[in-house]
Amino acid sequence: MNPVTQLVDIPLPESIPWWPLAPGWYGVILAILLLLMLLIVRKRQRWMANGYRRTALAQLQSMTVHDASAMNQVIRRTVMLAKPCDDKLSQTGVSWYRVIVSCSPQAIFTEAQLKQLEALNYQSAKHISQHLSESDFSKLNQLCQRWVKEHRFEHQS
User: Fold this and answer.
1) How many whole angstroms separate alpha carbon 29 and alpha carbon 33?
2) CA 122 remoteness from chain centre
3) What is the pLDDT of residue 89?
4) Are 140 and 68 spatial neighbours (Cβ–Cβ below 8 Å)?
């Protein structure tokens, strides 16, 4: 008789099941879920806090030359919604220019553009359409949109 034929395979141990997990894995899963929830909450808070920006951008994008007098009002409304209890809204002229310049990381408007923007408040739509070219309006509108996107206040990081 041949001894090789009598050999039997070695029995393999049962495979280790994935479930139930070891207690440490539950801690890892819980930590990941908490981090995801924190990220979702922060993202939602930021989205809600920037609602005034989306509104201002939509208003600026829908403006035509005839609506140019409202551009400075949109900027003022943006400042009001970003910093509700502030005295910055009552400022005009040079002090208003300083507010706008101080809120942006880099100079977006020139002083002449800011003066033109404020002067538009007091002009009729007919006067504006006669004296403000489409390219000047487009440039001012783009600068206003850029300011709305980029402005920062002290409390924001």
Assistant:
1) 6
2) 31
3) 66
4) yes
* Single-letter residue type at 87: D
Q: What is the pTM of this model?
A: 0.76
C-alpha span between 131 and 111 (Å, rounded)? 19
What's the distance, Cα to Cα, between the start and end of the chain in Å? 86
Lowest-confidence pick of 33-42, 87-96, 106-115, 131-140 = 87-96
Q: What is the DSSP string of 35-86?
A: HHHHHHHHHHHHHHHTHHHHHHHHHHHT--GGGGGGHHHHHHHHHHHHSSS-
CB 95 within 8 A of CB 118: no
Rounded CA gap, 104 and 148, in Å?
9
- HSE-up (13 A, CA, CB side) for residue 91: 14
Residue type, 31: A
Residue with tokens 């440039």: 139
Tokens representing 82 are: 């970003």
pLDDT score recorded for residue 79: 87
